[in-house]
Amino acid sequence: MPSKILITGTAGFIGFHLVHKLVQQDYEITGLDNINDYYDVNLKYGRLTESGIQKDRIRDGGYVTSDTFENYRFIMMDLENKNGMRSVFEEGKFDYVVHLAAQAGVRYSLVNPHAYINSNITGFLNILEGCRHNPVKHLIYASSSSVYGANTKMPFSTSHNVDHPVSLYAATKKANELMAHTYSSLYGIPATGLRFFTVYGPWGRPDMALFLFIKAISEGKAIDVYNNGEMQRDFTYIDDIIGGVERLIPKPPQPDPDWNGADPNPETSYAPYKLFNIGNNNPVKLMTFIQTIENALGKKAELNMLPMQPGDVPVTYADVNGLMEAVDFKPDTPIEKGVARFVDWYRSFYEE
After folding, report:
1. Which of 38, 39, 169, 273 is catalytic?
2. Backbone dihedral region of 273: left (phi > 0), alpha (psi from -120 to 50 degrees) or beta?
């Protein structure tokens, strides 16, 4: 029998791409998303349509089977819906769960903090409770490079302490890691947290720098460049993210026999719990990133230089040795190739 897998956030960027990768394999996939209006819902519905889920068939709490992929169905639901999520787990009898849905965005957490508690804390609790009462072989959940917060030791390693977040978004992702460890310890749920580093690519989020820059430059408008351009990001192409997740799904973590409570390693545990970075392991200067976009568009950008924003960090840089050791995989798509692919998609989706 095919393995059953729940993927949350399938109207979102990473979830959409993961569905398109896993439908080619021996999985029965249930996708879940609340299709909220944090950003343009037309893009979310566009992703769903591309996956064979037609907008006019979507009803809150009802399943829709894909017209394109016979092994994919979708349900619209809030993660905070305790009874609804319980029913999804009881009916689904999932072998695996990949939890990608969350309230995203660092800067938006300054404006609407309650959305992060509702989705990222209460919602994640419902995922954990679902896995507790309907045991799964492996829970994979999205964390974020934002958890490194005020850390300055580079590259960021999952063995580093991350007790100094600088945004509520980051704090909720750190809380997810703690909650997952607790449930892994108490109930034996194999749980893997993935710290994603600045994911970009076709169908990407419109609140991310690449999308904002290309839209503004294409329209002849100035782009906002924070910290006067003195930023570096470990930009990671979507295919590399999906490649890492795909390889990790059938590899649940095992308790670390060498874990020592007198000298605890944050990335492993006496419980079946593990953390990984998924990043390109190659920080790119923001101005270099902008130049790459200009080259792909064939158009110069007008720059609006601004100070650092609250909650931002100046540099992200992923140590991916753990990922390489676990699944022999390392993200490596150069930004020139990734940005060019995004520009091609952007033009086909928005301009044509």
Report:
1. 169
2. beta
